[in-house]
Amino acid sequence: MKKIPNQYGYQDKPIWVTETSTFSGRMGGLFQSEEEQAADLVKRFAILKAAGVKRVFWCGIEEIDYEGGTDEGFFDQSGLVYDGRGVLDRGKGVKKKSYFAYKEIVKRLSHSSFIRMQNDSLTYLLMFSTPSGKVSVIWQDKWNGNKKIRVIGKGKVEVYSIYGEKLSSFLDAMDLQLGIEPVYLVGDVEKFEYEPGVLFPPT
If 0-12 CB within 10 Å is exposed, 13-18 middle and 19+ buried, where does residue 3 land? Predict the structure, then answer.
């Protein structure tokens, strides 16, 4: 992403992503849940932050009638708040799960600095430094498989959903089964691994 700007002498210019999105709902034969939209939002923002992008903008907060009354187009359903139109719409002004995921990632990562990434095309662990301490985002892309992982850290690490709900905490290590949604790891995380061993239960 930085190669072309660098090539033309713009290496010091900040990179902005002025529009990104995905939808929740039905588009033809394709259905995507609110949870899948929220998960994808977090992945997009975390990866772009790690890549050094300075600003990222979602396509819109509230859904719009983009395709003239179909209510099933991609952009008709990409907003974070329902507009009251469509079979799967839950009511005008109702906030989707992606709204709360967006609110949480802004709180977690807005003032963060990227440390490093560990990934093997199945599991992704992105580590950030924030004014209040270290925060990591971890997920698995299910189309590549699913494996239980062990998270290795130093000291106490707290596990939060992408909506800010505390799920568990552990000391030094914990076995973790990831679902559709990423989770936040708040604390000093070193790595993940797949080797089997004794289960470290949450505290």
Answer: exposed
Do the beta carbons of residue 149 and residue 156 sit within 8 Å? no
Maximum CA pair distance of the chain?
57
Model pLDDT, residue 196: 64
Alpha helices in the chain (DSSP H): 3-7, 34-50, 97-109
113-193: what fold?
Immunoglobulin-like (2.60.40)
Domain ranges for the chain, please list them.
Answer: 3-109, 113-193
Question: Phi, psi (5° rounding) for residue 160?
Answer: -125, 145
Res. 152: pLDDT tops 60: yes
Residues with Cβ within 8 Å of residue 76, at least 6 apart in sequence: 23, 25, 63, 64, 65, 66, 67, 70, 85, 86
- Reading the block at residue 179, the tokens are 């679902």
Give per-residue pLDDT as tens, 37-87.
Answer: 999 999 999 999 999 999 999 999 999 888 877 778 899 999 999 999 988
